[in-house]
């Protein structure tokens, strides 16, 4: 990021960061007892987008004095590592009890001279344009890229007289205060929509969404009758598949072959809520003809090979079919792992419990796309016909409670098993009511999504306006 000296207002000058601040100064001597508590700031305590700093954490001086970054009140902290730097983790250190604190070694420390205000310097390097250039100049290995100290020290910034800096910073903060109030209001509205969305889904699988519909309509068959039909079809499909295998191998079915059928997992919980009349509890396994983990081979970011989903492709009620990973295997080995329209995909592993065991429906798939072993694929028995309803049920209520309760952490990874997924309780209404639930839920969720989209657009505009304010400020056009 460069500045043009000729375009600066009168009295302004261009200076290297190293000329107006000490970049990563040597540790100062402190006269504090080794067992005294000092402020400690891990990276998580600095809020993204220059959003503030939490200095409430305390640790004994003797624990942090050697192995961590030292800073003084009034210093500017600037995250050096990816992705923290790109996310705008920087802050001005507030007043501290002992005037000194310690924190993550992934901070650069800038100590402003008398010629530059700390907030002037911090606002300047908070600009997205500055951070983009910093990202292009990072060094190190993938995932461990850092902004070099020398590069940061050599950057040139506009420096007006100190009184002008303070006036401009005050104006920036006044304008940002108004914007932040609007952004906070939008965030509250977004949180309300999130709660409303969860309420809609929960009411859908508890029968409250279609309570009026049931009072006026009599389904062709009850949920219990539908489940009985599904279980019958499930076994018939298995038997048909076995007979085809025997026929393809040129063999007659052996004696007792039907006895090898694996009955689906039955309900474990005895304290499930009472369902509306005509509904029945079932396990996901009772509704499914297939529950299978994906392929374990490591994919490549480049062809050749079949496209394969990312582990992060599945989020609650959505599947991202991004085509940027490939697995080079023979078609014969891949054939059973191509996703199909109507498949439900569950996350088997995830670092966040919020995204573990969640389900997304493949609404349309006309290409050969594989799925990895950290996802579980569920194909419903054809008689169920409403995977959209099962998708809703699997992501909320007792179903979600069951999956979250089965989460286990092994070797730092949190996961659920295929057995856990199979045992998931699903409330089953009649097929007629499933159609009504989907129609009502779709209409309400579409309205929510539209409102969320409007809020996101306004939040983006707010962020862009902040950057425009900063640009004008450092061009001398704000005040």
The computed structural class is alpha+beta
**Distance, first to last CA:** 22 Å
How many helices?
A: 14
CATH topology of the largest domain: Adenine-n6-DNA-methyltransferase TaqI, Chain A, domain 2
Overall CATH class of the largest domain: Alpha Beta
User: Helicity range of the residues?
Assistant: 25-40%
| Domains (count) | 3
Mean pLDDT: 95
Beta-strand content bin: 15-25%
Radius of gyration: 30 Å
CATH architecture of the largest domain: Alpha-Beta Complex
State the CATH superfamily name of the largest domain: DNA methylase specificity domains
Overall shape: it is elongated
Number of strands: 23
Write a structural description.
The strands form 8 sheets. A 4-stranded antiparallel sheet has the order 2-9-6-7. Strands 4-3-8-5 form a 4-stranded mixed sheet. A 4-stranded antiparallel sheet has the order 12-20-17-18. It is built from 14 helices and 23 strands. The mean pLDDT is 95. α6 (162-206) packs antiparallel against α14. The chain has 3 domains: 5-160, Adenine-n6-DNA-methyltransferase TaqI, Chain A, domain 2, CATH 3.90.220; 161-219 and 435-479; 221-252 and 278-429, Alpha-Beta Complex (Adenine-n6-DNA-methyltransferase TaqI, Chain A, domain 2), CATH 3.90.220.20. With 479 residues, it is an alpha+beta fold.
